[in-house]
Every structure is written in structure tokens, then in C-alpha cells.
Amino acid sequence: MLNILRANAPALLLALPLLAAMWVATSEYAALRRAPEQDPVSRLQDLAEEQPWGGLAGRELAGRLDARWRLDPEGAARALGWQLTRYPLDPWRWLLRARIDRALDPDPALSRRRLEAALAVQPRHRELRWRAVNLAQNFGDVDLIADFLRLWLEEQPGQVDAALFIASRWLPDPAQRLDRVLPAGEDYLVQAMRHARVSAQPALARAAWRRLDQPRAPDDEAVREYIRTLLAAGDHDAVIALWQQLDPDYRPGDIPGGQFAFEPAALATFGWDLRMPAGAELERVDAGPPDTDGGALRLAFDGSENIHLVRPLLRFPAPPPGRYRFSGWWRAERLTTRSLPGLSLRELEGPLRAGVELPSADFDWQPFALDVELTRPGDRLQLQLLRRRTQAFDRYLGGELRLAGLRLEPVAASAALDNGPGASP
Q1: What is the pLDDT of residues 276-320, one digit of tens each?
Q2: Is 223 helix (H, G, I), strand (E, B) or coil?
Q3: Strand, coil or helix: 252
Q4: What is residue 136's three-state secondary structure?
Q5: How are beta strands 342-347 and 380-386 bridged, if at all?
Q6: For position 392, what pLDDT does the model report?
């Protein structure tokens, strides 16, 4: 017998690993079959003796602790700690360990270490980072919330609004929110400016503005969002000061961008809404009235729609109460309807409602002027191009209209105009 064993020793040595693997597989199979039927805490404690390497059954049982750990937090902490020493590359179990440890020990440093261990396993996993943010909120730990929001925001500036909304619950100071939550990079500040406008937070907008590189171009998105926020908040002085920086030719009380020296994207920064309905297109052109500077807005109508026009539209801070002259230039070419557009000027809060109508459907550059009385200090004016739908046979609007050189200037009472039949008081 001894000789037989000696003769077959090499084969037996080769078979031992196979036998060990078969035993491990059998043990794993049996443990996995029993796992769903047993309490995960006690079963993990038994598994430490039966299957000291933990294995797949250990991972399965540790996953079931999510729903059961509150029944025995201390036992769950011990069982999960044992499993994590066997398989430390399970980030979700590190999150659970942070939750359990926080319930047993309020030390924030311990929770931080557990969460950092989870993120170290899969450092770029966004869902994992988001779960860490939510855990930090459950803990009520402001430092953790700010740190993990910043981590979650990395490489996704489109989530700034969600992050700042969460941070506003814990960090009431807008400057702190920006400094502690936003990663480095201007894209995040631009998105913060947009969030400030949508959520009507002028203090947040001002804080973001102070952190942006200066000066900015008139067509810059951050400038546009900032001005829209300040206008909505009624901070007219700040808006006027910024317009003067962006356009040296602008004077307080005048129509911002009214010389059309800027492209449409920049005109939006001066308060213009230039969106056009179907059947109409708008562009800025250099060809304005003779002997004038600036450019013109060209509106082209393709004749396919019974257009209801409410834009171009501009809302801007009104000058102090008094007598003013609204003037400009326009030109029409082959407009195809008797229902012609006209310009309307009104106070948003005061009684002023005035307008001027096109003289005809086809004419070369002509000046127009309208005298108005402003009555409300601190009000805003609304200037817009209006054309109502009509059921007339020539209801489809085609042709072209150009606007240029729009101004609003104070006039003495002795220089008042007769507004004439084309104007409406």
C-alpha cells in the first residue's frame, strides 16, 4: 500500500487543489442556498466559523443587512465588519457601515472614514457619490454635505441647480454655498448664475458675479442671466451701471441696445426678447438709415402665417417722471396685409399706454416720434412690436420690416410734438 501511495504521489498532489476547489464550491453552494432563509446577522456570525473566507454567501448576507440592521445594530456592525475584512471592495457595504456606525457612535470622523472608504473603492461612480450626499444629509453633518456635494458635482456642472438647492437647506449664506459646494471652474459659476435667476435669488447671483473673471462681453451667458435676475429683483441702479460698462454709448433712461450695434445674443443682455413665431425670422443687419450709426433689426415674414406678433419686446428701467420723446426709424418693404404691425410703449405699473403705427405697407427709411408722459418713479417700461391676428382675406403676413435708432429722450414742454393720427395716446 505504501508503495502504491508513493507511486501515485504526484497524481495525488495534483488532485488536492481540485478536491479543495470542489469542497469550497460545495460549501459556497450550501451556504448560498441557506442564506435567504436565515437572519443575516446570526448567519454571518456562523459563517465566520464554517466559511472563514466569507465568499459569495457572505456578500449575499451582507446585502440583506440593509433591511435588517435596525433590529440589532451592534450585531449587524460586528457581522458587517467581519465581512468587510474578507471583501473590502464592496462600496455599498461601506455606505451601510457608515449608517450603522453613525447610529451607534455620533462621531462624524468615523462616518467620514466609512464614506471615504466607499468612494475609494469606486471613486468615479456618480450614484455612489449621490448616495454619500444623502447619507450626509441623514446625518445632518454640514461639512460632510458640502464636501460630498462638491465631489458629486465634479464633471457635471449641469447638476449645479440640484446641488445648490440642497446646500441652501444647510448653508444659508450664498457665498458659503458657492465656495464650499462648487468645484473649480467657470462653468459651475455660470450655472449657479442661471440657478439664481430661475429661483429668484439675487444675493446668490451677486455672489456668483463677484467670483467670475471680469470684464465680461455683452453676449456672455453669465452677464445675461445676472441682468435678468437684477431686473426681476428691481435693482435698476445695478443694471444701469452694468449696461454703461457694456455699452459706452448707453445713457440712463434711454432705450438699452436701441441703436442695434450688437448681435441678437448680446441684445438679450440689454433686456431684449427677440424670439419669433412661425413664419417670421429676425436678424441684425448693418444697413441702417442714412447718416446714422449702429445697425438695424430686420424682420422677414414669409407670407405663410396669420402671425400674432408680440416681439421684439424690451423691458427696461424707466427714467424719472416727466415728458419724453420716443423716436426712431423704420422701413417697410412689400408687407402683404392691411393688418400692419406697430410699436407699443407702456408703463408696467403706471397709466401710460401709447403707440405708433406704420404709415403704409411699403416705404423707405422714415423717422417717427411720439411724446409721452411718464408718471411713476422706479417703474419699468415695456416696448414691443405688436400685430394682431385678423380674419381678413389678406391675413397672411409677408414682406419685411426694419427698425433702427430707437431712443427715449427728455423734452421740454415747449418742444412737445403733435403726435399725429398714427399715434395712440
Answers
A1: 999 999 999 998 898 778 899 999 999 998 899 999 999 999 999
A2: helix
A3: coil
A4: helix
A5: antiparallel
A6: 84
Burial class (CB in 10 A: 0-12, 13-18, 19+), 212: middle
CB 311 within 8 A of CB 383: no
Looking at residue 387, the DSSP 8-state letter turns out to be B
Q: How far is CA 342 from CA 145, 174, 283, in A?
A: 55, 44, 18
Is residue 257 within 8 A of residue 244, CB to CB? The reply is no
**CA proximity to 52, closest of 76, 27, 22:** 27
Whether omega before 52 lies within 30 degrees of 0, making that bond cis, reads no
**Which DSSP letter does residue 388 get?**
-
Please name the helix (run of DSSP H) or strand (run of DSSP E) that holds residue 68, with its range, or none: helix 55-68
Q: How far apart are CA 377 and CA 357, in angstroms?
A: 28
What is the pLDDT averaged over residues 215-229? 95
Q: Among all chains, which residue has been given the C-alpha cell 428691481?
A: 234
pTM: 0.80
The single-letter code of the amino acid at 317 is P
Alpha helices in 258-384 (DSSP H): 264-267
Cell of 4: 502504491
Q: Does residue 424 register a pLDDT over 80?
A: no
